[in-house]
Amino acid sequence: MSVQTEGTDTAGEPAVRKARTPGPPRGEDRASGSPSGSRGAAAPYLLLLPALLATLILLGWPLVKNGMLSFQNLNPRQLIQHLTEWNGVDNYKEVLSGSDFWHVVERSVVFTAANVVLIMLLGTLVGLLLARLGKKMRLLLMLGLVLAWAMPVIAATTVYQWLFAQRFGVVNWVLDKLGWHSMADYNWFGSQFSTFSVITLLIVWQSIPFVAINLYAATTTIPRELYEAASLDGAGAWKSFTSVTFPFLRPFLYATTFLEVIWVFKAFPQIFAMNEGGPDRLTETLPIYAFVEGVGNQHFGVGAAISFLTILVLLALTSYYLRMVLKQEEDEL
Amino acid sequence: MKRSVIGRIWPNATALILFAGFAFPVYWMFATAFKPTGDIISENPVWFPTDVTFGHFKKAVDADHFWTLVANSVTVTVSAVLLSLVIALFAAFALARMRFRGRRGFIVTFMLAQMAPWEVMVIAIYMLVRDNDMLDSLVPLTVFYAIMVLPLTILTLRGYVSAVPKDLEESAMVDGCTRTQAFVKVIFPLLAPGLMATSLFGFITAWNEFPLVLILNKDIEKQTLPLWLSQFQTAFGDDWGATMAASSLFALPILILFIFLQRKAVSGLTDGAVKG
Amino acid sequence: MKRKLAAAIVIAGMMVSVAACGGNDGKDSGKDAGPDSWKGQTLTVWTMDGSAPPQWTKDVQAAFEKKTGAKLKFEIQKWDGIQQKITTALSESNPPDVLEVGNTQTPAYAATGGLAELGDLKQQIGTDWTPSVSQSSVYDGKQYAAPWYFANRVVIYNKKIWAKAGIKGTPKTRDEFFKDLDTIGKKTDAEPLYLPGQNWYFFDGLTIGQGADLVKKDGDKYVSNLGDPKVATAMEIYKKYAAYSKAPKDKDEATPQQAQVFAKGKTGAFIGMGWEAGTAVQANKAIEKDLGYFTIPGATADKPEGVFLGGSNLAVAQGSKKQSLAKEFLKIALSDQYEGELAKLNGVIPNKQPLETNLKGNAVAEAAAPAAAVGGTTPLIPGWAAVENTPNPIKSYMTAVLNGKSPADAAKQVEGEINKRLAQQN
Description:
The structure holds 3 protein chains of 3 kinds. Chain A is 70% helix and 0% strand. Chain A is mostly helical. Chain A has a domain at 104-328: MetI-like fold, CATH 1.10.3720.10. In chain A, helix 10 (224-232) packs across helix 11 (237-266) and helix 11 (237-266) packs antiparallel against helix 14 (300-328). By secondary structure, chain B is mostly helical. Chain B has 2 domains: 1-53, no CATH class; 55-275, MetI-like fold (Orthogonal Bundle). Chain B has helices spanning 5-34, 37-40, 55-61, 66-97, 103-113, 122-131, 138-163, 166-174, 179-208, 211-216, 225-235, 240-275. Chains A and B meet through helix 1, helix 2, helix 5, helix 6 and helix 7 of A and helix 1, helix 4, helix 5, helix 6 and helix 7 of B.
């Protein structure tokens, strides 16, 4: 839920850190950095313990349970009577042998890619614009961004339904007045493409602020000297962007893209509440598909299998970044 | 380098248009909520609610147990955010400031945890909670909401912790503080804006959550506001006035919180970086 | 050490608070030993939003508490996600004791084993239940619920617009109705009829009117019968109606709420439930005096159009530990006195024919009642409930036909999905 909303940057920070703290000798993995000696060896693990335990119990346990359910025939009868009926890989066979699943995977990937590209591109542009604006205008634009960002997803989705309502919706009215009369009574939720357009607009609208505001915050940390040095070298606006700004922001952009991929891929209330995956199930992405098959149709075992496959697809989508993190992290600190 | 007049105008003009684009849906929500039904379902949109009515709000607030749900939502949301912040702070400190075997592994673990598809795990969670006799209670909601936001909270806080210059901490320790004292006296105050900013994500996630509370808590005394909001969409169908009034009421606390905390957070972030 | 301690405290705190709220049930899990044990117990009854009027609830509660000495707690349920809620609730150790279940959903829940068998109750109080409304609660030859109330659609029309078009009286046959709609279209600037493409229960009524079945038996399992020519005929009738409307072809009657569209006073008529008239009045007070109702006319004047008899049954959860108390509640709530009161207050059709006298003077109910006799439901098989889950493939079928597909082709397009859903139970 509530994907594109979160208060800060995950990633403006590595840049900040690199700029200021010289890295330690690499390859050293011993616990140290604490002057308190050998007692400190266990400290990091103790500090991590609550988080790990909480994750293990509250996320790991449901995940394992979900995994077990995916090998069971679980419908209302079994749920109500507390019956456990193992059925091997039947659920997976059912899901994978149908064509539905693969269509949904394809659709989810395209949908995610389109949204993330739009969000990153426009978000970056708005962020750079923020950096160029005077104080008053910046505050005004910030306010607009924060309003969009802070809208609770359920409320935002409802508002978009209302904006795009066929009758009395303000969007159709405006399009009609602009001379596009065929749009006067246009039904936005009647076709796959138009429904996705509205959903995309909603998601992009709510996600840009996160990227833009954090990118702006990150640009303010770029040391002035770098630009001065660049302009001494005769660099123009574009050159100083590609040689100073962009390299500086790269880690931020990577991390944000990673988060946006996850958030867009997992987007649930926006799509479900907008048109319940319709028309004709044509806007179901993987999470919606899993929910409709599992919870909606009360075919819980199949739903569990789909959700498991959903995780696999998401892992595949983000594997590039995760691998990069695994390699990169040893250089940090 | 002197910029032309156009060069000075276009950023401002673009900013104005963007502001309108971003703010309009929020404005339209509030505007619709205050308009009488006749002005809402109207062939020509009424841009400003001239004939203001509070009827829709009354209808929204008059729903059964409204205030109980408000209290529950606030309790669950605040507790979940605090819980996740506390747990995350420990972890973030370790990940940002210490070197130890498996550190990368932990970071990637939390990144993976971030991907959990909660909506589709509701039945598994339901069965666990049911079999532990904890239905109709705010506690499972609180801890599950906390864990939903924990991974991102850790990863974000890690950034804030490492943005606090290390020499500050070290000089405190030279002055005779233990590491714990150094943390409490030096790092924690500097982290405050970061903590606030991080908490926003938690607030909005917990405030919005719907599928889990729907099946875990059937006792209306233990339900939360998203259930109330969704009833307007179904029970009243296209009663846009009441729906928008309910949406406005639902969104308002988060909007206020964001405007308040976000300014602090951004300025905190930039200040910290500049003064470093 | 402090750090370790702090961590331990956090964890311990979580565990304690987690454990502290465990023992919620059990407090009223008294053994069911008949009337002697009733005193001090609390019976929980789930009714759907809008089903039980406050007056009725109050009266039944007073009567019940007086007779049994036990407490009665009504909990009103919202429609959103109700299936998940009922399914999960029935699996709990402390389920609601009595619950309202939609008549089309009842066979599915009966098949899950979540509902208690009520054969003895039927013997005691239900021998004269109207068969057409009682049959939905019978599964596998056993009674799993008691019929509570029913309702069907009528035509709600705007008298002013009809008068403006010069129409006198109300149509008695479908052709007369079409002619009247033509007249309105020609003589006024109003939309003759508001009928969105997915008013699926109206369509179900038309199939009942044609004597069509939506499912058929194939060996030992049920499969879709949507391709049947009788279904196609029903759909053609629907299409003819829809041609009088500008309503969206891919929406149902709730989006937008058809009564609110009607309330603007620019619509000749719509097909809806009686309570929707109230919604219209709420949106526009001025419409109240123009409201009129008539039975949906059939092919001939002597037989109204088939209608979907929507309604609700009351069932007892198998897992309830208060079976005898729950049955006592049903005896009181479904007694002629309170069943009659409900019919009167809500204008709904009661579970016994003689009680229909309570509908006298209620214009909507008087328009609805004649059709109830020829009413029907959706197929009463456990697998059917899944078919109606969102996204309902029959709604897709309707939209496809209205958009120009032939009924046969449209049926082919969705039958796979219907069969999948019919097959998926158990």
